[in-house]
Amino acid sequence: MPKLSKRMAAAQAKVPGVTPVPVADAVNLLKQFNTTKFDQSVEIAMRLGIDAKQADQLVRGSIVLPHGIGKSLRVVVFAKGDLAEQAKTAGAAEVGADELAKKIKDGWTEFDVCIAAPDMMGLVGPLGRVLGPRGLMPSPRAGTVTTEIAKTVKEYKAGKVEFRNDASGIVHAVVGKLSFDAKQLVENIQAFIDQIMHLKPGTVKGNYVKGIALSGTMTPGVRVAA
Prior knowledge:
With 226 residues, the chain is α/β, with parallel strands linked by helices. It has helices at residues 6-14, 23-31, 81-90, 98-105, 121-124, 128-131, 149-157, 182-198, and strands at residues 41-48, 60-63, 75-78, 94-96, 113-116, 161-164, 170-177, 209-216, 222-224. The chain has two domains: 6-68 and 161-224, CATH 3.30.190.20; 75-157, Rossmann fold, CATH 3.40.50. It is 31% helix and 20% strand. The two termini are 30 Å apart. The model has no long low-confidence stretch (mean pLDDT 91).
């Protein structure tokens, strides 16, 4: 087991073991760990009582957090005509069709989100080998295949969060920065938890949320009471 640094060991000593604490208490504790030279992201991990192998128990979606995530995402859009103009006006980093598809096919992926108008999916579909493994493939379920191009671009630039459970049934997401006010972080975190609760699959039996933990980029995890 790697030896902890003095800073991490001191932080770990303040964590109340495996005892879950209220969200507000967890946030206040994390803010005590804000001793790095950069603004750490705050991340949430929720362990769900789902069978990740069952298609009807997958938990995925997106949410616009009340206070964003402290980062403006780089968005590219596949659209033409009026929708392309809307995307440009809304602040998309790149907007296009065939030329954009070729650029991505050649390996360019310097963006955080890819949005497509429905009539562009015939062009975007073949890019799945490049976009899919990076979690960038537009999807109707995630809201990234849409005719509401301007609205969607603005939401993602403001920090819209996409999430999907992994093979272990855990959902991870960024919910803000340690520099946020405690109240802002609490509201972001509670909004995310509420969204996951709302998406509970009907076929799940027993305890749906088995555990929640919060952490900063370079902090110990703090268990949170559901």
